[in-house]
């Protein structure tokens, strides 16, 4: 296993810049997820690490060696594809043995490794079956088997659960993370599904339009998003943004939205008058009749233990997550109050966050 | 409201009557297309008088004469000469002597047939081999003007091949390729390769490129991955394409008449010449045609599993 360093990586397709000057390091044994909407450059980044795509500029180091322009086969990595790419003309055992055969390994060693991979993934009973009749989950396990027999420097996975149905995806998430914990394998995993990312990753790189907006632990990304894009992309329902005009000075810990005065983490930078957005997670909203920030209930989605209440306010629509025991009638007027220590502020112009006490102790901000 | 049927009508299942009608039409079509073949087969086993009798004989005494005449050349001799030869050697000798003739030697059918085999299979192999390489390139790489090139390749099929017969004849004479197996192989390859590229590109497009990428990550070069991973999966398409190419090359008549005569003549231009050798020898023609059908039948039967899957053009997901 090895560390992956990506330095100043850039990829152009003609005029289109797919990946813009990205740098990040995946420590030895870490599970990193590249997360972003489709077309954000996450798969291109992964394919460049694999050697399936050559970067326009920048460097890629695997375990300290510069492999930027090495062929894929010379990098000693394993890649798991979304469509699994199991060879249909081979059975399960031959599929798993294929990478070892490519390396010209002895037959007894191949048999030993395949048996071990079968044991780790609990697919010993299907080793001699053709791949065509396998269920999605078994195909996925075979694809993983083909990756782990290599004992490669790192695993690269491109939406490996994308082709599975949603309930099974959840099971495989657990299995994948369990596998990673046992093998301690450096892993880069690409997905557009934030739940997959949050549940498996040691670190998440959130990408947007070819740029890594934030690279941090899932907790960090959820609690201290560095941009409106990250704040919006992570979390379901996503973060509420209340837009207002104001200027701020360092030390301010209250903002005014119309009549309402809302406590926020102490500001650490001077902000000239501009349009700002107050970011509030749905679960940090309480109904409070004493609050002067008021709105009209638009609708309620019942989710079992919690419910999502949508409220129209003068600053935009707000979704609040509350216990489902609270009854609010559609059309009723409610007051809202927020958990002051958890709020973020963004410049509406570029989506960047405004430094505050919230970000202290974090790696960004 | 039909009272007779107790089960509900399915919207997608054909009804019993439409199934019967479909079955009838299929059988009718099969009979119509099989009759000429059956007639050719039967003619091969008739005697020359039976083959031209009117009304035509459906029931007849089978005779070896057609096959004997196909494989031999004969000369007419006097009765005295024939008697001086001693007892007939083999069935063909006997049949021939009844017509007051003796066998002079083997006919050209076998060498012509071998020419056909060499030229048809040779050109099929070349066309498919070139086609699969170029189809792979068109499918996988960014080729400048790829669409125009593909159209250009297809456009060679837009005129009847015989339209260029005279220039090709002159060119071949100049290059010393006329009446040579190599010349015919090159010609049929050139005609077939456009079909092969188009058919195979469709099949290769259907193979996800992840397969090669996976193999390349596992340490194969692209060429290695092409042979070990792409080719096995394109087997269906290759089989279907090979059959189409083989049928064209096997049956081609016009260029074969024009460009071959002595050395490299194929079976199609040779078979009609049998008619001229000593009267209307229809049984020999029937026998020659029957044998001529065999290689295509064998090849198609061997590959039929691939062919049936192949002509759906990957419409069914594997």
Automatic annotation (TrEMBL), chain A:
Pfam family, one: ABC_tran
InterPro entries: AAA+_ATPase (IPR003593), ABC_transporter-like_ATP-bd (IPR003439), ABC_transporter-like_CS (IPR017871), ABC_transpr_MalK-like (IPR015855), ABC_transpr_MalK/UgpC-like (IPR047641), Mo/tungstate-bd_C_term_dom (IPR008995), NA-bd_OB-fold (IPR012340), P-loop_NTPase (IPR027417)
Domain of life: Bacteria
Key words of the record: ATP-binding, Cell membrane, Membrane, Nucleotide-binding, Translocase, Transport
GO biological process, one term: carbohydrate transport
SUPFAM superfamilies according to UniProt: MOP-like, P-loop containing nucleoside triphosphate hydrolases
MF GO annotations: ABC-type transporter activity; ATP binding; ATP hydrolysis activity
GO cellular component, one term: ATP-binding cassette (ABC) transporter complex, substrate-binding subunit-containing
Domain ABC transporter: 4-234
Keyword Ribosomal protein in record: no
Coiled coil: none
Protein family according to the UniProt entry: Belongs to the ABC transporter superfamily.
Name the UniProt record assigns to this protein: Carbohydrate ABC transporter ATP-binding protein (CUT1 family)
Taxonomy of the source species: Bacteria, Pseudomonadati, Pseudomonadota, Alphaproteobacteria, Rhodospirillales
From TrEMBL, chain B:
Keyword annotations of the record: Cell membrane, Membrane, Transmembrane, Transmembrane helix, Transport
One Pfam family, short name: BPD_transp_1
SUPFAM superfamilies: MetI-like
Major localisation: membrane
Transmembrane parts of this sequence: 21-42, 113-137, 149-172, 184-204, 225-250, 282-303
Domain ABC transmembrane type-1: 113-303
Keyword Transmembrane helix: yes
Protein name per Swiss-Prot or TrEMBL: Carbohydrate ABC transporter membrane protein 2 (CUT1 family)
Source species: Dongia mobilis
């Amino acid at each position: 296993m090895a560390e992956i360093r990506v330095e100043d990586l850039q990829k152009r397709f003609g005029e289109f810049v797919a990946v813009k000057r990205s740098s990040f390091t995946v420590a030895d044994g870490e599970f990193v997820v590249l997360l972003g909407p489709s077309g954000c450059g996450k798969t291109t980044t992964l394919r460049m690490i694999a050697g399936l795509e050559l970067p326009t500029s920048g460097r890629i180091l695997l375990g300290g060696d510069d492999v930027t322009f090495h062929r894929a086969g010379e990098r000693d990595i394993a890649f798991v594809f979304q469509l699994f790419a199991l060879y249909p003309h081979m059975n399960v055992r031959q599929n798993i043995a294929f990478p070892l055969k490519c390396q010209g390994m002895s037959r007894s060693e191949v048999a030993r490794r395949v048996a071990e991979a079968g044991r780790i993934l609990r697919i010993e009973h299907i080793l001699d079956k053709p791949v065509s009749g396998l269920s999605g989950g078994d195909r996925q396990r075979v694809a993983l088997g083909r990756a782990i027999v290599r004992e490669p420097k790192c695993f690269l996975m491109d939406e490996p659960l994308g082709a599975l149905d949603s309930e099974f995806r959840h099971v495989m998430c657990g299995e994948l993370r369990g596998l990673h914990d046992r093998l301690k394998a450096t892993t880069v995993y690409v997905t557009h599904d934030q739940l997959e990312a949050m549940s498996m990753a040691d670190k998440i790189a959130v990408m947007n339009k070819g740029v890594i907006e934030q690279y941090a632990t899932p907790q960090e990304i959820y609690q201290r998003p560095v941009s409106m894009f990250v704040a919006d992309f992570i979390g379901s329902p996503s973060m509420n943004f209340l837009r207002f005009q104001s200027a701020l000075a360092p030390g301010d810990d209250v903002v005014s939205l119309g009549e309402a005065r809302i406590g926020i983490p102490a500001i650490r930078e001077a902000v000239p008058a501009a349009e700002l957005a107050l970011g509030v997670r749905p679960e940090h909203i309480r109904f409070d009749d004493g609050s002067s920030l008021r709105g009209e209930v638009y609708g309620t989605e019942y989710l079992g233990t919690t419910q999502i209440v949508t409220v129209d306010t003068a600053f935009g629509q707000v979704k609040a997550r509350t216990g489902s025991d609270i009854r609010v009638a559609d059309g009723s007027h409610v007051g809202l109050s927020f958990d002051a220590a958890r709020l973020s502020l963004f410049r509406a112009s570029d989506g960047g966050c405004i430094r505050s006490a919230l970000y202290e102790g974090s790696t960004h901000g | 409201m039909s009272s007779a049927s107790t089960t509900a009508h399915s919207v997608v299942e054909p009804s019993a009557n439409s199934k019967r009608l479909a079955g009838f039409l299929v059988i009718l079509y099969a009979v119509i297309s099989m009759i000429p073949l059956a007639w050719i087969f039967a003619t091969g086993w008739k005697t020359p008088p039976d083959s031209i009798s009117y009304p035509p004989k459906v029931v007849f005494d089978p005779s070896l004469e057609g096959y004997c005449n196909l494989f031999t050349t004969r000369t007419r001799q006097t009765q005295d000469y024939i008697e001086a030869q001693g007892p007939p050697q083999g069935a063909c000798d006997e049949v021939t002597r009844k017509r007051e003739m003796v066998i002079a030697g083997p006919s050209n059918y076998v060498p012509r047939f071998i020419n056909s085999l060499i030229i048809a299979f040779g050109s099929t192999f070349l066309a498919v081999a070139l086609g699969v390489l170029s189809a792979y390139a068109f499918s996988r790489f960014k080729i400048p003007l790829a669409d125009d090139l593909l159209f250009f390749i297809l456009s060679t099929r837009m005129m009847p091949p015989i339209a260029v017969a005279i220039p090709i004849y002159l060119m071949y004479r100049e290059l010393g390729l006329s009446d040579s197996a190599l010349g015919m192989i090159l010609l049929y390859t050139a005609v077939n390769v456009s079909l092969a590229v188009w058919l195979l590109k469709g099949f290769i497009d259907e193979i996800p490129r992840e397969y090669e990428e996976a193999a390349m990550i596992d340490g194969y070069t692209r060429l290695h991955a092409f042979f070990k991973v792409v080719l096995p999966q394109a087997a269906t398409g290759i089989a279907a394409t090979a059959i189409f190419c083989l049928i064209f090359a096997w049956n081609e008549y016009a260029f074969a008449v024009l460009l071959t005569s002595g050395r490299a003549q194929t079976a199609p231009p040779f078979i009609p010449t049998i008619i001229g050798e000593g009267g209307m020898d229809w049984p020999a023609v029937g026998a020659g045609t029957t044998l001529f059908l065999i290689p295509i039948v064998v090849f198609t039967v061997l590959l039929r599993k691939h062919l049936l899957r192949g002509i759906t053009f990957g419409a069914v997901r594997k």
